[in-house]
Amino acid sequence: MKRAATWLAYAFLPAELVLVICLVVGVRIPPPVLAAAEAAVVLLLLAHGVAWVRLRRRGLSAREALRRLVPEPVLRLVGHELRLMTSLVRWVARRPHGVGGPGALAFPHARDQAALMYGFAFVCLVETVGMSYLLADLPVAHAVMLVLDVYTVLFVLGLHAASVTRPHVLTGEALRVRQAAHVDVWIPLDRIAAVRRETLFTHEKAEGELNLAVGSQTSLTLELTEPVDAPRLLGAPRPVTTIRLHADDAGALVRELGRALTRVRTAPSPVAQDPPASA
Hints:
Helix content: 40-55%
Order of helices and strands: HHHHEHHEEEEEEEH
Number of domains: 3
Shape: globular
Strand order of the largest sheet: 1-2-3-4
Number of helices: 7
Distance between the termini: 68 Å
Strand content: 15-25%
């Protein structure tokens, strides 16, 4: 059933995409073709629903069943979009993500990109109004482009909101490095070999390096003793040993991280006690 549902998706979704494009450009679609397309969508949903129920009956959790049916890249893309939209709500409510816990320190990093993101959102908004006026005589194209343009504005604002509500977080055991909604890496403190204040405006791609530039700059560089995995957007592994990031107050992050590293390196190791001597 799982294989049948997957093949149905691969067969129907491209056809549905072609059909939508034809409708947008004004091609007249015969009613029987539209009816067949709607029936195909219903059939696809039913097939996935039946497969999901069968997987649940085998003892899989809802999330595990979903992962069996939907490819991981699709899940990660959908999850990314949901995190962006959720970040808009958190931004309005002033509720940052993942900054709780005893001793956790948050370090914002979105300040230097704010002007650029607001400007980009304004340009997208102007484009939305212009396209709405130009396509006023094409109802289908007007509706589709309006949805896409509005979502583009929300997407741009969501990127900035995710950066605002997801700061870097330093705990007693790890440094959590983040960028928008697509990068979230935990770095154990015992793997950090060196940290230095270093402002860079050019970043060439290199194997084993992760550059999290904000406003085209990074202000800190971390050197690791062992690689940590920083998965790409679609889930491909990416081991890195050098991480460059930015913080609004880079000096404070360097100081607090230095203190945390000192505590980790000078913490007394547990002393093994000898077993009591037998009589």
